[in-house]
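Let us practice reading a record.
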Amino acid sequence: MNYRSEYLGRAAVIALIALLPMLCAESMQAQDTRLRLGMQTGMQSSILRYSVMPFSGTFQSTVDEGSVHGLSATYDVTTHWSLMLEVEWHSFGWSVKRGDDPLITLEMAERGSVHIPVLFRYKSATLSMPFYIALGAVFTIPGNSSERVTLSYKGFSEREAWTSYEFRFDTHTSSLHPIAEAGVDVDLGASLSLLLAARYQAGTEDLVASQRLGVQSLSVWRLRAALYIAL
């Protein structure tokens, strides 16, 4: 099951809540607080590991999950500390093929979901570039009530000649995931700023868990850019 990712996500939320009093105290004392609103876009991919009965061994593939778009807000509590909140819409499907005999195909039908990441960010004061690191959690709201992975394979045997099989499996996903991000946040003027970043999201332990098919989402990676305007 995907309990580990769920627990890590809850731990990240608890850590975020624990840091809030500190940021509030810093905000009351700071003179350079600012709120920035903007739009963002990014490209996302995930690393999958899967096994298919009756074939031996496990396989690993990287799948393209398409683009992610949304709105972003950053509250700069001090010069170094910030709180980031995003609302994103993600719609994607993927297909993985492996081998010739047998030819194994895994396919996730197109699905949509809403993501709400919350991160605490620290921007370095010692580097010449405005480099930052951020930690937090993302809450996912599925757009579809059920999500399915289709497994099909075709192979040749002397007894059955060429034979095709197809099976469908429901998926299991966590609503909370811990996330980490690193990037640069460059001021383009008095009000405009540009953010470029890479994000890591912990995967679920078992996306599909059955005797015939096992699929694990090991991790999710994203490259993203955001353009902000200060209020």
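A brief commentary: The mean pLDDT is 81.
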